[in-house]
Each structure stands twice: as structure tokens, then as C-alpha cells.
């Protein structure tokens, strides 16, 4: 029986060095502020407006804020979204 | 209501559209992205790459861009329960860490049989390019490492799009698998460094786009002749292009196995392209009437330099009977008018559509002997390569169903009320400026040109000499 020992060509990735968990979820969407973030790509806005309508029907006290950023989103916009909303729905149309 | 305590985004920063969710999560807010099914692999890999493997998202069946309004509404309605759940409920954690065990063992009735099993397994894991791979044994990798002055554990750079850590040893392993030789390793290392010099968001966009963006490696300086990089019919198969092909293949395998550039995961091509095997060419500096490309970019002529360019296709352009610089350049200019205009990035000096012009020695000589400098040739082509905005926009609608301007940047809003006839009457250059043409002397002695739609980034160059065996670090 012949044997062949070779190196593995796959590298470690930086994201695996220090993985983070996601943020705590929104306890209740009722009376929360929900961000809707659109990348500017066709139909993403239509989808987010539909999400907005459903949320307002399900949670009458929910407030929504619509954000549009050019590709790519700036850190400033992302900070604004995080600072002013309790949860965020993102549509890139992809 | 959310608080306004702002803190910097920690760890690898996700700045792109598909990965903005990571940044928001890192800022402490729960987020959910609506992802089409075909892009789910991208979502999973992007999350892991940015250090947040448990990212929560919702999958819908279709990409939204070309759906009619009824389908947009229908698939969004169907996703609403999932959106609410992902915003309010933590999913159970899953381990998605990449397996990078140092060695793999294969057995067979003979060495050839064991090698066949290695190939079968590696290709199944998508660690190759589809062609048979050479075995990266201890001995082969050690021999490859003699081609550079760098230590095996030296981390050269992070490789996009997955930000894999490119140790010199990992680069050497992939180069061995590609069939490269030790003297080619410094070119491969420099090419990866040239990629690492790009803006991170641009590098990810370039490699992960659903368009067929591909890398082109141009080598200038003495090393091209020393190691046999072809500057003539440099892009085809065969004996004369062995070095070109091995360097290009090594670079491709590094993108895959170090940068996680796997099709369907972080290479989201719609159709793909053979250019993704990576074209590597040398400039024919001796036959060129102009200064070499690397000198144009500020390097010394005696330096060896690799330049990374982006390509989006290729057009073969014949010429019959033109004997004047003007005729030849007009032919090139006309053939540059193929394709769409990039309105989205037209204001950015470093982003947007470029055009790579490969001019073989024969026609280059006629143009040069006519007293036309490289800058002059580019300006002439830029002046003549024009077409109407109607055709440049490729008949894409500027307005959405509700009259919104959709993707059109502000500086182009003046187009919004023009009719097709009016758009057709406005004739514009196909790229923004003359310096968005990259003019290279490459090719055999014939009157053919090759034009490659390029971009979206400006060429990125890196000195090769610093990585060669014997160079001082």
C-alpha cells in the first residue's frame, strides 16, 4: 500500500481568530424603532416598504426609519442606523 | 428607543452592501438581511469572514432586481414571519470555522493511485481549478520556498475576499499544486501583495461581484526574461506560455484556498470567465516605442514589477491596411466603444471603468515612429472613442415604476427628463479621462490588437525583487 502525505492548502482566516456573537435580539418589536436600510439597488426599497407596512400592521406602536446609502455604506451611516434604531432590516436586492 | 453611545466597529470591518449587517451587529444592534437563495452561500461566508459566524438572515427565493412588483411583494410577504423571528429570537450557535489541518494523508495501490485519490478529494473540496493538481509534499514545498528570502511563517498579507492569512508557506503550497517553479514564487507573492494594496471594499467587490471581473497580471522589468514570461502571443496555451500559465494558476489557487474565493460562496459570478484562471503577461519592453508600464507608474526601468489590473472581457481587433498612426488609433478607438458607461462611479478618480489596450510591436512601431507619445495616443483614443448616452446606458430605465431615480447618482440627475431621442443626441467619451486607458506593448508581430474592458480599480503595482531569494529583508 502506497501512502502520500501532503500539506493542506487552505489558510486560516482572520475572522476565525476572534469570532464574535451577534447582538441581543429585540425583546419586543412593539414600541420599538425599526431601521430599514436600502442599498439603492432596484426593488430593495419596494421590499423594505412592504416590510414597513407589515410591521405597522402587526405592531401598531412600532416606529420606522428609512435609510438609503450609496454603495458601499459609509461607517457614518451605519453608526447612525445603530445609534437610532433598536433593530434593523437590510435589503440589498441580491 | 436606542441609545446613542457610539463606539468604533471592532475586528474586520464589513463595509459592503451584503455585509453591512456585520457592522451594525458589531455596533450592538440586532439586524436581519433579506438574502436571495442564490446568494445564501455569500451570506454565510461573509459572516464568518467578518468574525460573526452566527449572523441571522432571511432567505427569499429570487433576486429582487429584475422582479415585477407583484413578485417583489409576494416574496416579501412570505418572508415576514421569518423577519420578525430573526429580529426577536437568537438562533442556536453553529461552528462554521474553516478546517485547516496541516497535513492530509492518502493511500492507494501505488503512488499514482494515491495521487489520483488526492486529486479526487481536493477537487471535491473545490481546492483546485478543475485541472489535475501536483502533490504539495514536504519536499516539493521546501524546494518551492528556496525561491524567496521570506520565512515560511511570515504573514505576507490578508487575501481578499475572505481575508485569509497568506503565510509564505501557504502560498508555496498552492504554487506547488499549480506546478510553479521556485523562481516564479516572488512574482506570485508580489501579485498577492498588489491585491492587498487595494481598498478592502474594492477588493471584495472586484472578486465577489456577480459580473465576471478577473485579474490580469502584467510583469515588467528584467525578471520577465530571466524566468521566461512570454510577451508575444502570451495568453494562450502551450510551451511558450508555461511560466505565464503557472504564475496565473498559482495566483488563482491562492485566491481560492487562502482568500476563500470559492464559486458560489465568495465568487458570485453569474456566468464566469476563462479569464478567472488568471492571465499573466509580460510587456515587450524591447520592441515598445514607449516607456514601459512600470516606469510610467514611477518605478525604475531595472526594477522587476508585477501589476494587477481588473478585466471584464476581451475584444480581438483586426486591422487591414492602416499604415498611419491616425488610422490605427481610430480603429482602436472605435472598438473601445463597446459596452456600457459606468455612471455610478464616474466622479471617483480611482474607481470606474478603464480600458486595457494591448498593442503588438508592429502597429506600436508605426504609432511611435509617427511621433505619438503614449500620453498622446491615449488622448487621441479618448477623443475619438465616443458614443451616445442612449447606447452607453444600454437602454436601462432611469426611473422606477413610481418615477424614482433608483440607481442614478446625483450628478447625473439632469438626464432624468430626457427622451430617448435627446439621450441619443448627446455623445460622450466612453470613459471619463484619457488616463483611464492603460496602453501596453504586448503581442506577436501582427496587426491585431486586444482590447480588454477593465477596472473597476486603478492598476496596483508591487516590486518583485524584494521577495526574491537573496534579497535583504
Descriptive notes:
The complex is a heterodimer of chains A (94) and B (473). Chain A has 94 residues and is α/β, with parallel strands linked by helices. Chain A has three helices and four strands; from the N terminus they run βαβαβαβ. Chain A has a domain at 30-91: Rossmann fold, CATH 3.40.50. The mean pLDDT of chain A is 90. With 473 residues, chain B is of the alpha/beta class. Chain B folds into three domains: 20-88, no CATH class; 101-283, no CATH class; 313-398 and 417-454, no CATH class. The model of chain B is unreliable at 1-17 (pLDDT under 50). At the A-B interface, strand 1, helix 1, strand 2, helix 2 and helix 3 of A face helix 1, strand 1, helix 2, helix 3 and strand 3 of B.
Summarize this, please?
With 94 residues, chain A is α/β, with parallel strands linked by helices. Chain A has helices at residues 14-17, 44-58, 75-84; strands at residues 2-7, 33-38, 63-68, 87-91.
Number of helices of chain A: 3
Q: What is the strand tally of chain A? A: 4
Interface with most residues: A-B, 68 and 114 residues
Biggest beta sheet attributes of chain A? 3 strands, parallel
For the record, the CATH class of one domain in chain A is: Alpha Beta
What's the story with the biggest beta sheet of chain B?
4 strands, mixed
Total of helices of chain B: 16
Radius of gyration of chain A: 20 Å
CA distance, first residue to last residue of chain B: 55 Å
CATH third-level topology of one domain in chain A: Rossmann fold
**Order of the strands making up the biggest sheet of chain B:** 7-6-8-15
